[in-house]
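Record pair follows.
FIRST:
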Amino acid sequence: MPPTPRPSNELLSDARSQSARDSTEQPLISVVVPTRNRPQALSRCLNGLAAQTLAGRLEVIVVDDGSFAQNEVASIVALHPGARLVLRAGGGPAAARNAGALAAHGAFLCFTDDDCEPQDDWVEQLVKRLQRGADAAAGTTLSSGGVLAAASEITAHAPAAARPPDGSDLAFAPSNNLACTKAAFEATPFDESYPDAAGEDREWCARLTASGYGLRAEPRARIIHHQELTLGGFLRQQARYGRGAFRFRRRGGELRPLESPRFYGAFVRRAFAEGFSVGLLVCVAQAATAAGFVHAWTVERVSRPGFTSSIRARSSRRDGS
């Protein structure tokens, strides 16, 4: 049997030159990770990003949004050569994402949170979807386990059940598993008037699709969401979602109507399909969300100019004075 022919030195040189050209011609990808007071969770997230199949094309921008453990966060970021740190005094995740995107050099932006662990091809799958023509792409978020975390994931994804706009697969995608082109982001940055992790991603998706950009699903882009929830923390989270929902529905100055009863019925049925405990927690969560919504509505009414004067005037009329 004749020996296998070996490539000549000239062919090897050509192949290496082509590989080098391919590497330099590939666009840079920026991953933005807001963080606040969760250094251990951040470490797990950065380890997952360091293991990405496209790690050689990544820059990771960690935005510390006013952590008390700022030195520990800085030490963790310093362990990852491809990561750099942006410091903020605090302003919420919407402002933190904008700050990270402003510091980014990549043609593509990926967003995740510090308590998320991306699978090793997460960036690759999202970017492939963008390269096929999507303006924004959203992956699959998996719960790390437990009934509270499972119920939380269902409530967080509830707006995704709405009918997608024309040109999109999705009406909504949480910002912990999201990517977009730099151009799409520059046209629609996050609304920094949202102070909490609630409603700001919903508002962004609505504004993105209303501007004619397409939001596409990429189920193969998977992350694991490691939520550490107590019952009290879960209920506070849901009340925060309610406040965010009020801000979203108040957009434009008028309170937009709620979804139809059919929407909420399908949402609850899906929750019970995951198990009785999950379904029950989702029902309790809806009560907490409603309380948060009403609280935000009440605060807005009380803060309106002339509200106190009108209350006093009505009280005086009742007293006959």
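SECOND:
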Amino acid sequence: MILNKKRRTITNKKRNLITFANPDSIISEEYRTIRTNLYFLNEDEKNQTLLITSPGKQEGKSTTAANLAISMSQQQEKVLLIDGNLRNPNIHNIFKTSNVFGLTDVLMGSSSLEEAIYKSSIQGLDILTSGKISSNPVELLASKNMQSLLQQVKSLYDIILIDSTSILDVTDTKIIANICDGVVLIVKQNKTNIGSAIETKKVLDYAKARIVGVILNNKR
């Protein structure tokens, strides 16, 4: 894929990226285990687009999505990490990169995909940040442009990970879950209650989404 001069390069000054900063750590090994388990799931059915979400806020989904993307790229996979949280995006903060334009701009037609994708300094990992905050995120995510974008990137990448809003807060995530191959649910120890987890399962079932795995995040 050839990108023009507007494509940005991300610096190495990243936070919360343990798989990049300390690949030999126990936590990095845990991410590799998650990565391997997802590959085993792919043996029978290709889960090329995976949505990363959680029942509520501050349960670690963005950090998990970022580290999982790095771990997959370290396995010589070509990975695209998309920030699908159009209300309170965080991927650009984690990777310390610009969010001048991104997903919303592509969906609204004000930027091409090539212009909006940021090339990471981590080999094999590209990032599509959220872009400008939109007044109509639900309409954008439910648009045909979003479905077309996912079809386009499937031909360019081995795996696409999408960070999103928490599932019980707004409608946005239900829409993305419906058009992804699978959903990885993040729950946090001592924070996610059983009632929220059960309700999340019901919401995803109603959206006809396929949960491929649950990750227990015990980070305090």
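COMMENT: The longest helix spans residues 26-41.
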